[in-house]
Here is the input.
Amino acid sequence: MPQEVRAVVALAKGEPVTVTTIVVPDPGPGEVVVRVQACGVCHTDLHYREGGISADFPFLLGHEAAGLVETLGEGVTHVEVGDFVILNWRAVCGRCRACRRGRPWYCFSTFNAAQKMTLQDGTALSPALGIGAFAEKTLVHEGQCTKVDPTADPAAAGLVGCGVMAGWGAAVNTAPVTAGDTVAVIGCGGVGDAAIAGAVFAGARQVIAVDMDDRKLTWAREFGATDTVNAQTEEVVARLRELTGGVGPDVVIDAVGSPQTFRQAFDARDLAGTAVLVGVPSPTAAFEVPLIEVFGHGGQVKSSWYGDCLPERDFPLLVDLWQQGRFALDRFVSERIALDGVEGAFDKMHEGGVLRSVVVLDRAGS
Ligand SMILES: NC(=O)c1ccc[n+]([C@@H]2O[C@H](COP(=O)([O-])OP(=O)(O)OC[C@H]3O[C@@H](n4cnc5c(N)ncnc54)[C@H](O)[C@@H]3O)[C@@H](O)[C@H]2O)c1
Ligand SMILES: [Zn+2]
Ligand SMILES: [Zn+2]
Here is the structure.
């Protein structure tokens, strides 16, 4: 029987989100229904609400989630009922041209549920990043479920499903930071702080945090930043050079995604250094640079989609590092809110008071 559950939907571009009842179909072949326990509020949800990702309204928002597998569709073998899983938006297909060439972290044809969740009037919903987990239950492809240590707090574990993985992976997988590198991270929200933690884990000798908000810089130090730069009061490129003996960091990660911050990343890195773009730019943002500077600077300019992660490899690793006290995953959880708190969480994202607001649906599980 299709189930009716409460969920957060963005009905129209730029309008506040609403909590409403949606219909979750029975899982079809390869699909599962997951009872969501917690789901973080990521800046990408706000990009969706603002129409910056696609025009396919209405959206079912939420994509940083952990929960319990509740019902299995035909032929599902990857998970069992009751498994504690983090939802991912990279269910690797194994057959696309990226997968065939042995680069599954770029998979161009990832699996999602084939059926649509709908509003009560039958209007099909577009689930954010193919997940849609600001909901009591959601329908996903079995490959979107990654099993992790079931003793983990769902509110923290869910964050691995997007922002934390993207940031950590931008440093560890995309750059990749290697032992002895100097690294700067521009933008110290959930994504940037995870990049800082990843750079520390990978053996960086210096990790410089850049943000416009001093509170964010204080938190960045808790994740391992060795130096900080306030982008509002200091000249970022000059200061990054100064802090690295006049040459610039080996790796600069832009976790904001604006033309201004990406230009800083491009310019500040050392000769033959690496600039990584993990922040998602607005559709109209443009980056223009004299070609001679691209040539003269050398090195690499890379985008990081989801931290170039492989969920089955990387999610259990991050949860294990946290359980061992080697990665402060729970430190990303600034507040626990209900489904009706998502719009307020977007406001707080702008005010800078939180790293992550997390919608908690099942307190018994947390
Ligand atoms: N590439 C991916 O796969 C992926 C995955 C998740 C999120 N993202 C993107 O990463 C970005 C960051 O996400 P988040 O959830 O951490 O956002 P956030 O809003 O929590 O953090 C952004 C931080 O950047 C700071 N900032 C803004 N402008 C700045 C500037 N000019 N200079 C320095 N700091 C500045 C803010 O003060 C804030 O601390 C977003 O664009 C998001 O969509 C990308
Ligand atoms: Zn593929
Ligand atoms: Zn996200």
Remarks:
- The pocket of zinc ion (ligand 3) is lined by residues 42, 44, 63-64, 162-163 (CB under 6 Å).
- The longest helix spans residues 311-323.
- The two ends are 28 Å apart (CA to CA).
